[in-house]
ABC transporter ATP-binding protein YxlF
Amino acid sequence: MIEAVGLTKRYGAKTAVHNLSFQVRPGTVTGFLGPNGSGKSTTMRMILGLDTPTSGRVTIGGIPFRKVPNAPRHVGALLDAKAVHGGRSARQHLLSLAQLSGIPARRVDEVLGVVGLQEVARKRSNGFSLGMGQRLGIAAALLGDPQVLLFDEPVNGLDPEGILWVRNLMKQLAAEGRTVFVSSHLMSEMALTAEHLIVIGRGQLLADMPVKDFISANSADFARVRTPDTEPELREKLGSVLGEAGAQVVAEPDGALRVTGLPLPRISDLAHGADIRLWELSPHQASLEEAYMQLTQGVVDYRSTTDQRAGLQQQVAAPAPQGPGMPGQQPPQGYAPQPGPYGQPAHPGQPNPYAQAPGGAPGQGYGYPPAAGPGAPYGQPNPYAQPQPGPQAGAPAPMQPAAQPAAPADISKPHTEDAR
Ligand SMILES: Nc1ncnc2c1ncn2[C@@H]1O[C@H](COP(=O)(O)OP(=O)(O)OP(=O)(O)O)[C@@H](O)[C@H]1O
């Protein structure tokens, strides 16, 4: 078990971690989440004795890392995959680590197989891709067959097969009773991998609870309601009826309505009472991403602004070549995140529409309802006063922690069993 008590780290005037207390227990994957610069890496470095706390303490199995005898046999970590002597081969790198800890050489070949690097084991690591480097870092973490494992962004740069492999590896390590502590910014991946979450913002603890509880606590369930596509006036009417009954109603990009604040039977009754036919009335739970955005929106330090392309308008205005099959295609509207469905204000300083409707309000609306503007809840002032033309290139799509099919058996072929 990892235990932090009152953990604090200051760098000069900057407090990176402030009075952090938590436990990471064995047997489950614990996700470590927080916005950029919130103190995750600093916390991990303190756990591993690479940074000294300004105050407080952190222990592994009750002992500070630096006092753990032959630590690599007990604690494995992937912090910075690039921290490898680039002139060495993957095998040489792992062999030198193994020798330092009295780990037999055959274990090196085992872990090279586990991470799927057998074929390139004798190649210099400075020619490795980002994903190959990550695999090598994971191999190093597994080398001592440790009971406690820390991974900082382990899927960074991995291909889909590698991401699936890491997900299964984390779960397997936890199922074996190990302590697995994983930081990631990929909410959809965390939703599939972690059972417990520790969330920090600006160095302070925001949440320490099971994933399910975290989503329930930081979002509201909602209903999706769809009226016949052929009769748009019915949708308008339903929006008004539900809004008058106290619901938060937001138009989804696909034409459905997202309704919070009313139970499904009530929505059904109201629709029936207003003589409105429904094509869909379905319950939905918010995603981990939505819940995370809701919780952390006030502690995000680094937000993107819209790319104004000052002085570059000519390039944007240049007519885009229109090939067959793309009539009317608009030039790309930018790569900066657009006014986000979850928590990002449309413009700095403007209120976040999500805050008005916890768990709801994702839709940018794409022009519906026309009177209120995109994403505006019915009967409420539209926080996005500017007209918005429709789906934008580069707009982030909401990620859902959709249930994914179990991995087919042969997908992990490149990796070998960890014989230990
Ligand atoms: N050695 C250092 N000297 C000064 N400031 C530092 C140092 N290390 C980290 N910081 C600062 O501490 C804060 C937390 O950084 P940290 O890297 O722990 O955040 P993080 O949550 O891991 O971020 P990210 O998600 O971007 O990796 C940041 O403001 C960072 O600039």
